[in-house]
Amino acid sequence: MRYSLLAGGKRIRPVLALATARALxxxxxxxxxxxxxxxxxxxxxxxxxxxxxxxxxxLRRGRPTCHVAYGEDVxxxxxxxxxxxAFRHVLTHQTGDPQCVIDALAHLATxxxxxxxxxxxxxxxxxxxxxxxxxxxxxxGRLIGASIQCIALLSGADADxxxxxxxxxxxLFQIVDDILDVTGTDDALGKPQGSDERxxxxxxVSEFGLAGARTMAExxxxxxxxxLAAAAPNGALELEHITDFIYTRTS
Length: 251
Hints:
This protein is mostly helical. It has helices at residues 2-5, 12-23, 32-49, 66-70, 72-93, 98-112, 117-125, 132-154, 163-183, 186-189, 195-198, 204-231, 237-248, and strands at residues 59-60, 63-64. It has a two-stranded antiparallel ribbon with strand order 1-2.
């Protein structure tokens, strides 16, 4: 668990959570337990994604994947334990109104279950794919969105107000990820370049070409910035910067 969790990475999801707290004029230190839980869950998903039965990747965050280092059996258990630990961590350490904590955890469970991340992963491995936006809205977008909406719920704020921004940010992240899978390097990405192509996966690049995917990323970035402006009319400078980073990232 520690091997995969502490290996590095961009920590986009907990960073989004802390930035959302600040946008809501809240001390970000108060939401650290929930922010940490998001990274625990994200790491669990990466461990399981890398397994031979899934993407069968040997490199993650610049080092051998968990199942390569410790065996497939231990990797499955490490992922399971990280998911359970995420909820235990919030229930044990997250302060605030109890109903708000429960609401945030219920949203997190939904975002990572059958109607969220796991449902999207199933669509990814099944033969019957919906359109790419629907697939990735579940597989990638729901946990990214939960990083924002869970903090709103924890703060007693209107989580639905953030929904359009969350949805577009998840799409933007995936489009850029698909572009980098083609244009990046193993060293920069911390994982094998071209993994999606080797596995015959449908991506924004395979569907629309590299130029088309870049145009879609540009449009999605503009849409995300507009949705953020509507969700945070008083400004959310750090979320603006994170949105720009997701669009321009190289790894």
